Structures are given as C-alpha cells and as structure tokens.
Amino acid sequence: MAINVPTSLFTSLLLLFCSASSLRSSTLSKSDVDLIEFPLNLEYLEAEFFLWGALGHGLDTVAPNLTLGGPPPIGAQQAKLDQLVQDIITQFAFQEVGHLRAIKSTVKGFPRPLLDLSSKTFSKIMDSALNRTLEPPFDPYANGLNFLIASYLIPYVGVTGYVGANPLLKNVHAKRLVAGLLGVESAQDAVIRKLLYVPK
Question: Which residue positions does the secretion signal occupy (predicted)?
Fold first, then answer.
C-alpha cells in the first residue's frame, strides 16, 4: 500500500518555524501567552508517545533540553509497527519536537509534566469509550493498528484545541504560529485516518 504524505505537511513545518522566529521580537499579552503555553501539555504527550512508539526512546534522548527537567513518562514503550507505520510515526514524532521548539522559542513554557503512557491507561480509555471492558485489554503497543487507533485521538484533540484558541489570540504573529501548528496537526489527523480506513 503506497501512502503519499502531502508536501503541505512539510511546508506547514517550514512556515511554523518562520512564524516562531518573527514572533520572538513581538510583545504578547498574558492571554496570548497562556493560549500558546497551554498546548505544550498536548505537544509533550504527542512527542513522547510518537517517539517511544516508533523509536523506543523519548525526549530525554532526542532533545533533553526541551524537557526543562520534567520527569520521564511512565509506561512508554516501543510499539510493534510495520515499516510504513513506523516511518510515518517517526516523522510525526520529529514534527512534535519541532512544535515544542516553536512554542518554546515564542514563550517561556514549563517543564514536561508527568505523563502516564502505559498500556493500562490506554486500556482504561478504550473501556470507557466503548462502555465495556475489553478482553484482552486494549494495548496500543501490541501492533500497528492499535497504535494508530490510540494515536488518532491525540492530533484530533490538538486540532480542536488550536481551532478554539486561534480566534481568541490578539497578536497576528501568535495567530500565525497557532495556524501553523493547526496545519500540521490536521495533516497528521488526515494521514492517520487514511491509514486506518484504506483497505490493506
């Protein structure tokens, strides 16, 4: 199965870094800073989940300076992915590292929070979503399909969060940064959907 990842994904990243650079010299209101800092929680989650799932290690190996001394995630592990899914999730992982850099080049940020990425946590989420206890328990690391299902919820939350934040931002450069983040999250969402729904 051949999947074409849109070049707009990479263009969005380039625009994102240009936006972040131009924003450093701008003055942001406290509300703009809060709206830009809040998504750091999700960006840390995405970066760690994708890095661990694809590569078997996280920010402490790839970009320890971005953690600001925050604790390592609990229960994260490398997933059993086929080559295609591993390649795509690796790209997503480094996009999320770029998101963290873009946000932290704009606002001060905060240390990585404690993240529970254990299969037990994802199992509880799936049981709650389906209103029944799955047997065997859902394990996002067991195979590529499970990892994609678990991954799907994360960019979707990012998309809705950035859509909600953008109209509330006052500074044009802050709006451009969030629009760039939104573009990449939307592209990730689309790629995951395609992988989930294209017949194998």
Answer: 1-22
Does 1 fall in a domain? no
Query: What does the pLDDT look like over 171-193, one tens digit per residue?
Result: 999 999 999 999 999 999 999 99
Distance CA 146, CA 57 (A): 19
Torsion-angle region of 80 (φ positive above 0: left; ψ -120 to 50: alpha; else: beta): beta
CATH number of the domain at 36, please.
1.20.1260.10
Which residues, 6 or more positions from 187, have their beta carbon under 8 angstroms from its beta carbon?
A: 5, 6, 8, 9, 12
Q: What total number of domains does the chain contain?
A: 1
Task: Give the pLDDT band of residue 26 (cuts 50, 70, 90).
Answer: low
Answer whether residue 153 is part of any domain. yes
CA dist., res. 6 & res. 54, Å (int):
20
The predicted model scores a pTM of 0.86
Q: What is the DSSP string of 40-95?
A: HHHHHHHHHHHHHHHHS--HHHH-GGGGTTPPPPBS-------HHHHHHHHHHHHH
End-to-end CA distance of the chain: 7
Q: Residue 69's domain spans which residues?
A: 28-197
Q: What is the Cα 161 distance to its own chain's centre?
A: 12
